[in-house]
Amino acid sequence: MLAGKRLVILTGAGMSTDSGIPDYRGKGAPKRNPMTYDQFLASAAHRQRYWAGSHLGWRLFDSAAPNRGHAVLATLEQAAVLTGVVTQNVDGLHVRAGSNRVVDLHGSMDRVRCLNCGQMFARVSVAEQIDTANPWMTEPDAVTVNPDGDAEVTNWQDFIVPACTVCGGTLKPDVVFFGEFIPKERFTEASDLVRASEAMIIAGSSLVVNSGIRLLEQARRRRLPIVIVNRGETKGDSRATVKLDAGTSETLTALADRLLS
User: Fold this and answer.
1) CATH tag for 7-259 (out of 3.40.1010.20, 2.60.120.200, 3.20.20.30, 3.40.50.1220)
2) Residues of the chain with pLDDT under 70
3) What is the pLDDT of residue 142?
4) Can you give the pLDDT at residue 141?
5) What is the torsional sign of CA 58, 64, 67, 71?
6) What torsion, rounded to 10 degrees, do the Cα atoms 244, 248, 249, 250 define?
7) pLDDT at position 109, please?
8) Which of 64, 100, 117, 261 could form a disulfide with 167 if both were Cys (CB 3.0 to 4.6 A apart)?
């Protein structure tokens, strides 16, 4: 079904579980109430709690390595089989694995933006600022980190929040919070990849987030073959040409072996 076709892939949190980053929508994952954009803007205490947890989450993301699935997609892109990767993940692992055409639908944790002046910073530099201002803060023996890079912490009340070094304004990781819209140009770029492709793979996403369903619908309306690879049910199962209840790394590796042979 996929042989000889140009593919686009949409990836979700299940893509990164083999890299040690949890899937908060997978089977057995704890329920959580992520911070909304309005909460982040409205309260200095909320920004304290978020940045304390985000700093610990960033440490995990920064130390995580791309897995076989990420590497396979980079290989398929180099072979001109894959038009590009659209990802709902914010961990940056696709780029680190060597993929060049990556649309970060929900942003990336390795960038930080000032909400006042718009200046963009590398996350590494902001992390250094945080470490300097909070020398007491060490990673606890056990910390729960979520796929959006926000860790569950309790000792955040003394945390000193980083500020923009240009204007002193409010900093926010360049990720889409709940209650915040995906930038129009970013979704347009993802749609362009779907239009340039002849088949679609969805890997490791339960398709709970509306952006994924919208891209699936674009592919379905064009009558493209749609393959979903995910452990457990997804909201798009009834619309898929084929649904595989399986892990992403092993399935994509086996698929690439066939497509490249």
Assistant:
1) 3.40.50.1220
2) 24-33, 138-154
3) 41
4) 44
5) positive
6) -10
7) 92
8) 117
d(CA 24, CA 239): 23
Q: Structure tokens of 228?
A: 């979903």
Q: How far is residue 77's CA from residue 28's CA, in Å, rounded to a whole number?
A: 33
Whether 94 sits among the annotated catalytic residues: the reply is: no
| Single-letter amino acid, residue 167 | C
Q: How far apart are CA 185 and CA 241, in angstroms?
A: 29
Amino acid identity of residue 24, one-letter, is: Y
Distance from C-alpha of 5 to C-alpha of 80, rounded to nearest angstrom: 10
Question: What is the layout of strands, in order, in the sheet containing 226-229?
Answer: 102-104, 82-87, 7-11, 199-203, 226-229, 242-244
Residue whose token pair is 């250094």: 128
